[in-house]
Amino acid sequence: LSELAAIGQPHALYLPLAALPEFHRPLALSPAEQREYGSDIAFLGAGYPNRRVAFRPLAGRDFKIWGSDWEGEPLLAGNIQRQGRRISEEESVRIYNAARVNLNLHSSMSAKDLVSHGDFVNPRTFELAAMGAFQLVDRRSLMDELFGPDELATFDTPEEFYRKIDYFLAHPQEREAYARRARERALAAHTYQQRMTALLEAMETRLGPWRDDRREDGDTPDLDAPLREELARLTAGLGLPPHAAFADVMDRLRRRTGPLSEAETSLLFLDEWRKQYKK
Question: How far is it, in rounded angstroms, from Cα 186 to Cα 164?
Fold first, then answer.
């Protein structure tokens, strides 16, 4: 941000990544799912050089590696799941929920420095936290402003990494406490809705308040009070602001199920007329 300001661009904002609570959530897995996805230790991600070297001492343990780009790694071949095929987002939530200790080692192209000590905090950190899934993550320079020291179990060196894996496997209550606190923090401060709210507020601060009605004078039809009230109730029921665009109202309305009110039927008819005849 300081470098942007130095070249004359003051309108800059840092927004960390985040999670989707309705998707990244705790799951109650069936016994079959727990057998398929569960393990003492798990990692889901690509086989970057630092991860390959860091994970080799864990070969032969109850350690499942999910994800792609693990070719040519014979020592870990027995740990790599599904021959290194890519994993869907839906399955990733099951994998994270099923593991006792999720490893979150940020990627690096260097096989010499296994812990890169960078600044960027990856999406996995927020997603695991929102799920209430325990993670062991390498410390990043921007992490302290995002999570408290009792919310994420971290490490700075390979030696600390291996030691803490064994420690937390032997202390399930501490794992649960970390995971619970991380989830509370993620839901309170690290959702994409909160990120977009921060973005809009920053824009308003820098560029001035949003206009409540972005129509030009004279464009608003002269509606009587009962109709205005009915349309306001309709847009509120669709989860939209009072001056939502017509296209947004139609999009929400077409995705609803159930009987239509007279106003909803009229709007759908108007939309069809507009598509057919307006040029």
Answer: 23
Q: Could you list the residue range(s) of the whole structural domain that residue 233 is in? A: 225-277
Q: Is 0.85 topped by the overall pTM?
A: no
Q: Is 98 helix (H, G, I), strand (E, B) or coil?
A: helix
| Residue 94 in domain | yes
Give yes or no: residues 31 and 107 share one domain: yes
Residue 137, domain CATH: 3.40.50.2000
Strands (E), the chain: 39-44, 63-66, 99-104, 135-138, 153-155
For 19, which DSSP code?
B
Sign of torsion over alpha carbons 244, 250, 254, 258: positive
Residue 237: enclosing H or E segment and its boundaries? helix 225-237
Six-digit token string for 198: 């921060």
Q: Which residues contact 179 (CB under 8 A, 6 or more apart)?
A: 129, 132, 133, 134, 135
Q: What pLDDT, in 10s, does the model give residues 19-62?
A: 999 999 999 999 999 999 999 999 999 999 999 999 999 999 99
How far apart are the C-alpha atoms of 192 and 39, rounded to whole Å?
30
